Amino acid sequence: MNPHYIKHPVLLLACLLGVGCASAPAVPEAPRYGVQLWSVKDEIKTDFEGTLTRLAKLGFEGVEFAGHFGRFGNDPAGLKAFLDKSGLRCTSAHVGLDLFAPAKFYATTRFYKTLGCMDLIVPADRRAFTAAGSPQVARELAALSAKLAPLGMRTGYHNHAEEMAGAVGETPWDILARGTPQDAILQQDVGWTTQAGKDPVAYVRRYPGRSISMHYKAKFAPGTSGTPIIGQDRTDWVGLTLAARSVGGTVWMIVEQEEYPNGMGQVESVAASLRGLKAELAKMPAK
């Protein structure tokens, strides 16, 4: 994305964008299926529109962006039209804190607002990999949350294994959660939480209403192994989704693949995880 960076006060921006006080989306009976486009990062570089069309045909309802927009890098309205035509929505986007600097704030938020993307998640910050550095990141996220709120937008943070290190209640993730407002999304990456030896279900329940989106990724706890495809792993996907629906406020289950086993391609691996997830969730108890 190469937008023109213009400084504007937040309230003027809200006026220019025509945004009032937006409420959070209603949580559906079962969270929707999304996919993080980092999963298919190589394929979207060579065929962006064809790859997204394939993802829609697989049954995904939304996509989460990670900085690549094909030919639409300066045309969010065109990208929104393409998503609409494809039957896709923007679930959220991974956006680094640097893109919210004063000189870039207006262009960044205008791009994503035009795209219809209201949840802007910080994908990582190395300061948050330690308990010592996490409070500063939390303060910056809290300040960003306050700036985005008048625009009807939200921020949040996505974890890796490092944020889950340490005793429960004292991890960098816990520090981030306590230091940010309730409307800041705690986008738990289930795979990284599992690899860190923590229980992802317990963390959904620990912070009610803050798991608006989660990364559904198959990884393995220390000392275990298997195939990193959802349904071929050891994660309790039923228990996780029950917690997501009843406690987490989850709207989007965002499938993510970073490993492609048995010679499978990127879209093929994502498709396998989506099939596996649907098979797992078919085991959920009837209401």
From TrEMBL:
Membrane spanning residue stretches: none
Record's keyword annotation contains ATP-binding: no
GO molecular function per UniProt: isomerase activity
PROSITE patterns: PROKAR_LIPOPROTEIN
InterPro entries: IolE/XylAMocC-like, Xyl_isomerase-like_sf
Superkingdom of this protein's organism: Bacteria
The keyword Amino-acid biosynthesis is annotated on this UniProt entry: no
PANTHER family on file: HYDROXYPYRUVATE ISOMERASE, INOSOSE DEHYDRATASE
Protein name: Sugar phosphate isomerase/epimerase
Source organism of this protein record: Massilia glaciei
